[in-house]
Design a protein that fits this description.
By secondary structure, the chain is α/β, with parallel strands linked by helices. 44% of the residues lie in helices and 11% in strands. The chain is built from 51 helices and 27 strands. Strands 6-8-7-9-10-11-16 form a seven-stranded mixed sheet, with helices on both faces. Helix 19 packs parallel to helix 25, helix 20 packs antiparallel against helix 25 and helix 44 runs parallel beside helix 46. The radius of gyration is 38 Å and the shape is flat. The C terminus is likely disordered. Keywords: Repeat. This is Nephrocystin 3-like N-terminal domain-containing protein. InterPro entries: AB_hydrolase_fold (IPR029058), NPHP3-like_N (IPR056884). It comes from Immersiella caudata.
């Protein structure tokens, strides 16, 4: 076969019949007449970019194996018109001027348009091809569509010839033509798709000038032309100069030519490029675009003129566009938005298929068009860093139902009740402190607020006042005023301040990644309610994803199944709409499923099918009807939809991190309004996950905002950890302990004046020494002043000289390091109180939630109990009638005053004034006369928790007894939640019991077998764990609080393996003689309210332990009938439990299906019974498959298949 002629042609004006490369080749061949279709090689065929008309035509890019005679008639021609019978046929050219479509995208999938613009003296098509004679590859046409299937690609051509040009056009002329071309082809108009540009060299200058021109336009066409700016999603500039180029030799060549002005504007003989860059950088709409700058790193041969006048690239080597010019100076301030390509100025866009740089460009384009990108493998957090998941255009499954949500109510449910609690608890700074953060230029903070980018890091030693400073900055009017100046002049972006204060001693929502995301999302929606519409699509996607995971399907598909199985004509559109409107998506009094049952029965009756219904626990049930399955599924779907209206902490929908990130990305990609967000994060070191993950997220969210409608800067505070230093060491910021000496001085003097209004010279004389030794740590100062004030009180009757010496000795005896200071405080606690100090500080260091004062007193009362009876006696002796003053005084004295108290309000524990700049409570609240239930107790500072959790703490506080003590805070809390029958918490006491009991076994390696044997308390916890309504169904006889198996059931349901092992030691036949369906308890425990679910692997470990030690599992039919699990996420665990049942009953010689050894009738019928029998017959093979599925993907598929089979069984049982 003949080789290709090394030239690419464009064939325009092809009829709509050219719907494939083959048909296009045949049409071109037929019109030319002297070239066979086999000699016409078509590389692309696509709809022409032109104004809407009645006749649709297509464009193709073509090469020939045999040149047609028409194209050889005039060697200087660049365009040929084929005429047949006087009609104009294909128009073939090599100049590629105007817009050329490179790929076809069906309209439903078409989401973005991308236009490539070539540079000076570059060919519109050839500029993007690799060097060399092989012309059959062009990366924009041949590679990009495969990676970005929703994007239509175009190239834009214009005349930029240098030698012999007779054109007087300049950059502004070319830019004006570009604007008009885009409008004529319906690109960039209000109803067009988003636009992305690839611009090389002069092409980028033309594009910048076009955007500047559009931004300046006023008059009748303002709205139409501004829509071009509004439609641009992103730009990649390839070697586009922002300062003059070394084109002196080229300028000398074109002198006296008509195009001299065009070339001169690019050299240092003109100020044009500098002025254009200044205008371009101040376009208000620029903030809505994602921009990347690619720069060359190889020298380029400049143009030279030979003696015969011909131009060639044989001049001296030069770097035509340096890094700074090509990146608009971003190489210094925003390097992550720059792309280095190791080629010369021409080769920077001449990619081959194998080029690494092409892979980078594809990735950047995917970011700009919103396509799903996972640059780091794995969809979740880990030690290696943050994995970004960008929200792409929704891949809408067919037949997806639309819902009408109350978005404001769902926003309120997303907001955690304790979202702002930590911020409220941090007291205001002392008057006059921290103003230096704005006034001292060496901090760079004021300059960063005015115009900085990226991340600002405030670091400091523990207890140096970081949180107080962050609250001061967050609420200070000067911060808002300076941020208002952020952005280019004329910017219409909305300024927003968001804040989140991590709190490791607080609740989960105060220290977790999900809590941070929920806070950011709800703050944005509260400040800008018009953005709530962004929540709708993300909510739809979350609902459908969760429904699919749980195997719930959709109402529409199930209704169609009902009518198909009944042999009835399918529903009309109006009838279907009536039924779908019954779906409840907002909280209301009546159930949507009830309305659905009524309407469905009416429609079936109209088709001659009459069904009598009976009432079941979940609503109407229709025996022997396939419609019943649709109704039961709708009940579950309804519960899922309504769960979005309840806070997560109160049993509502548990949002995953990926779902919350989808909402964040929806806010970044929205086009409703532009936002400039400054996010203030306090105590990043108190985040409860991996530091690498949260640092990666901060970088991602800040970089994600660059060039989008949601630009973000982040100011955060933390301890100077190495991981933060590694990631943010080069970011602007300061160390607070190097600046707060005057603040500490002011705090010392104010504290002394408040305590001793008439002055106290011996104490005042020590202030300079205190300041020097503090080294910026407020907490140390607070502790020192407290000890000095106590020394003054103890020496009140002594003379001034003796007092001065006593105070000096006291100060000299105090350690400089906080840990040493805390140890000295513990050493002062009387031996009688040491155990109580250990209990209180251990509990406050271990618990993840707040602890009420009365709960702490109860924990102390039973902390020494070794049996349930001892614990019960401790509770009976406890008198909580004491007023708060006495209770708090006792707790403070026995803990060395390392704790603080907070009053409980509707929002949670509130602050008690005053608090110093060390972020700790220094209040004397001894006069409070409230009840012990009205306040919570917590550690005075995070550094106390750090000290308590050190390995030496137990030895320090308990001394010689420490070797014999295994109990810790989890132990004491588990006992308290078991025995306190009247506890009422945000998290129910059973949730805390399960958490603390599991943690106690994990951290101490010991069970609480004897203590948990208290039958009355065990029975009450049993009722709460499984639900009062289920007690009678699980016990073999009438409910009996003295049943000895109750404690065993609690341990199994809570996954307390050490307790179960100790039960076996006490009674080896405890499982063999069990009368309770313990496996049912495990299934129930899998699906308890979130926060106390039993982990799947723990449930399997418990089941395995019981079966290996004589437990006879129920029959398969009994297990399935009672378990009724229709949630696919538990399918794998349930299936493994079933395999255990099959193996165990078979090895015991029991009937696999029935509870009797005889035949017996199965409680299952129809398809469910067939499933069970099939499983029973083949269970050995299933076991071998399960154990032999070594290949992960294969194993996953099999497990998924089994899970769906199980779901089918349970739904039919």
């Amino acid at each position: 076969m003949a080789s290709l002629v090394p030239k690419v042609y464009r064939a325009r004006n092809l009829s709509s019949d050219a719907d494939s490369k083959l048909s296009a080749a045949k049409i071109i061949s037929a019109h030319l007449g002297d070239v066979a279709a086999d000699d016409v090689v078509v590389y692309s065929v696509a709809d022409e970019a032109r104004t809407e008309s009645a006749t649709k035509t297509r464009t193709a890019t073509v090469m020939f194996r045999k040149p047609p005679s028409l194209l050889q008639q005039d060697s200087r021609a660049q365009e040929w018109v084929v005429r047949n019978a006087g009609n104009i046929g294909p128009i073939i050219d090599t100049h590629f001027f105007g817009l050329t479509s490179l790929n076809h995208v069906n309209e439903p999938q078409h989401r973005v348009d991308c236009i490539a613009i070539c540079g000076l003296a570059g060919h519109p098509f050839g500029s993007w091809q690799p060097h060399g004679g092989d012309k059959d590859y062009m990366w924009i046409r041949d590679t990009l569509p495969a990676h970005l299937p929703h994007v239509r690609f175009y190239i834009y051509g214009y005349d930029t010839a240098i030698a012999g040009s007779n054109s007087t056009q300049n950059v502004k002329d070319i830019s004006g033509t570009l604007i008009n071309t885009l409008q004529a082809c319906n690109l960039g108009t209000s109803d067009a798709k988003p636009l992305v540009f690839l611009a090389h060299s002069l092409g980028g200058v033309v594009l910048k000038q076009a955007l500047v021109q559009v931004a300046k336009i006023s008059g009748k066409t303002l709205g139409q032309r501004l829509s071009i700016l509004d439609k641009i999603s992103g730009i990649i500039f390839f070697g586009v100069p922002s300062s003059p180029m070394p084109f002196e030799s080229l300028h000398s060549i074109v002198q006296a030519q008509p195009n001299e002005g065009l070339v001169r504007d690019l050299t240092n003989k003109s100020e044009y490029l500098g002025e254009l860059e200044d205008q371009f950088s101040h376009i208000p709409f620029l903030e809505n675009m994602t921009t990347f700058w690619a720069y060359e790193t190889k020298l380029t041969r400049t143009v030279a003129k030979a003696r015969d006048g011909a131009l060639s690239m044989s001049g001296p080597l030069a770097l035509l566009v340096d890094r700074a010019s090509a990146t608009s100076q971003s190489i210094y301030s925003h390097r992550d938005a720059t792309i280095q390509i190791d080629e010369d100025h021409s080769g920077i866009v001449k990619f081959r298929q194998s080029d690494t740089a092409l892979t980078i460009i594809i990735h950047k384009l995917q970011i700009m068009v919103g396509q799903d990108v996972r640059p780091i493998s794995g969809p979740h957090q880990g030690t290696s860093g943050y994995t970004s998941k960008l929200l792409g255009p929704a891949q809408e499954p067919s037949r997806r139902e639309a819902f009408h949500w109350d978005l404001s109510a769902i926003r309120d449910a997303l907001r955690a009740s304790q979202r702002d609690l930590r911020e409220d608890q941090i007291e205001k700074n002392y008057e006059g402190t921290f103003s230096w953060v704005y006034d001292d230029d060496t901090t760079g903070f004021r300059q960063w607020l005015l115009g900085g980018r990226g991340i600002y890091w405030i670091r400091g030693k523990p207890g140096s006042g970081k949180s107080t400073l962050m609250k001061y900055i967050y609420h200070n009017e000067r911060t808002a005023q300076l941020l208002h100046e952020w952005g280019p002049p004329g910017s219409r972006a909305e300024q927003m301040q968001l804040g989140f204060f991590f709190h490791h001693r607080g609740s989960e929502v105060q220290r977790s990644f999900s809590g941070l995301l929920r806070s950011i999302i709800t703050q944005i929606f509260e400040q800008k309610p018009q953005l709530l519409s962004c929540l709708g699509p993300a909510l739809d996607a979350t609902y459908h994803e969760t429904a699919a995971t749980r195997g719930l399907g959709s109402l529409q598909s199930e209704l169609e199944k009902v009518f198909t199985e009944a042999g009835l004509q399918q529903l009309q559109e109006e009838e279907l709409a009536v039924l779908l409107r019954c779906q409840q998506t907002k909280p209301r009094q009546s159930k949507g499923s009830t309305s659905l049952a009524r309407e469905l029965r009416r429609l079936l009756k109209s088709r001659g099918v009459v069904i009598e219904d009976v009432t079941g626990p979940d609503g109407p049930l229709w025996p022997d009807s396939s419609a019943n399955e649709a109704l039961l599924s709708e009940v579950q779907r309804e519960e899922l939809r309504l769960s979005f209206y309840t806070r997560e902490e109160e049993g509502g929908y548990l949002w995953s991190q990926s779902q919350l990130l989808n909402i964040i990305d929806a806010l970044f990609t929205q086009r409703i309004l532009s936002m400039h967000i400054c996010l203030f994060l306090d105590a990043l070191d108190e985040y409860d996950g991996e530091p690498e993950f949260i640092t990666g997220f901060l970088r991602h969210i800040q970089e994600r905002g660059e060039g989008s409608r949601c630009r973000m800067r982040i100011c955060f505070s933390s301890r100077p950890w190495a991981v933060f230093e590694r990631h943010f060491g080069s970011s602007p910021g300061f160390a607070i302990h190097k600046y707060n000496e005057d603040d500490i001085s002011r705090y010392c003097w104010n504290s002394i004046d408040e305590r001793f209004p008439n002055g106290l010279i011996p104490l005042s004389s020590l202030v300079p020494s205190i300041i020097e030794r503090a080294r910026g740590v407020f907490v140390w100062v607070r502790l020192v002043l407290r000890d000095l004030f106590e020394a003054v009180t103890n020496s009140r009757n002594e003379g001034e000289g003796h007092l001065r010496e006593s105070l000096k000795q006291c100060l000299d005896s105090l350690p400089d390091e906080l840990d040493d200071y805390y140890e000295s405080i513990i050493d002062r606690i009387e031996e009688t109180f040491r155990w109580a100090a250990y209990v209180v500080l251990e509990i406050l260091s271990r618990i993840e939630e707040t602890v009420r004062v009365d709960t702490m007193l109860k924990a102390l009362a039973i902390s020494k109990a070794t049996t349930g009876e001892e614990a019960e006696r401790g509770f009976r002796k406890l008198h909580l009638a004491d007023k708060m003053r006495e209770a708090k005084s006792r707790l403070r004295s026995l803990s060395g005053s390392l704790i603080e108290f907070r009053a409980i309000t509707a929002r949670g524990p509130s602050v008690e004034p005053p608090v110093d700049n060390g972020d700790v409570d220094d209040s004397d609240d001894g006069d409070s006369n409230g009840s012990p239930e009205a306040e919570v107790v917590q550690l005075m500072h995070q550094t106390v928790k750090d000290f308590v959790l050190t390995p030496d703490f137990k030895r320090i506080v308990l001394r010689s007894r420490s070797a014999h003590v295994v109990e810790n805070g989890h132990t004491f809390l588990a006992r308290t939640y078991l025995f306190d029958h009247g506890l009422r918490h945000n998290y129910r006491s059973e949730v805390q019991f399960v958490r603390q009991a599991q943690s106690a076994e994990r951290t101490t390696g010991k069970s609480q077998f004897r203590v948990f044997q208290h039958r009355e308390s065990a029975y009450r916890m049993f009722e709460r764990l499984i639900g009062f309504a289920n007690v009678s169904t699980i016990l073999p006889g009438p409910a009996d609080p003295n049943d000895p198996e109750i404690a065993l059931s609690i341990a199994a349901s809570s996954g307390l393996l050490l307790y179960l092992e100790d039960s076996l030691v006490e009674n080896p036949s405890v499982f063999a003689n069990s009368r309770i369906d313990l496996l049912w308890l495990l299934v129930h425990a899998l699906m308890r309210i979130h926060g106390s679910q039993l982990p799947c692997e723990t449930a399997l470990a418990v089941a395995n332990l019981m079966i290996k030690n004589g437990y006879t599992p129920p029959s398969l039919s009994s297990f399935i009938t009672r378990s009724k699990v229709g949630r696919v996420e538990y399918g794998e665990t349930i299936m493994r439990l079933i395999l255990m049942i099959l193996q165990a009953r078979d090895s015991m010689g029991c009937n696999i299906w029935e509870d009797t050894n005889g035949g017996g009738a199965s409680v299952l019928s129809g398809e469910a019974a067939e499933y069970v029998q099939e499983w029973g017959r083949s269970y050995p093979e299933l076991v071998r498959e399960w154990e032999g599925a070594q290949e992960p993907k294969q194993a996953w598929r099999r497990r998924r298949l089994y899970a769906y089979k199980l779901k089918g069984m349970f739904r039919r049982s």
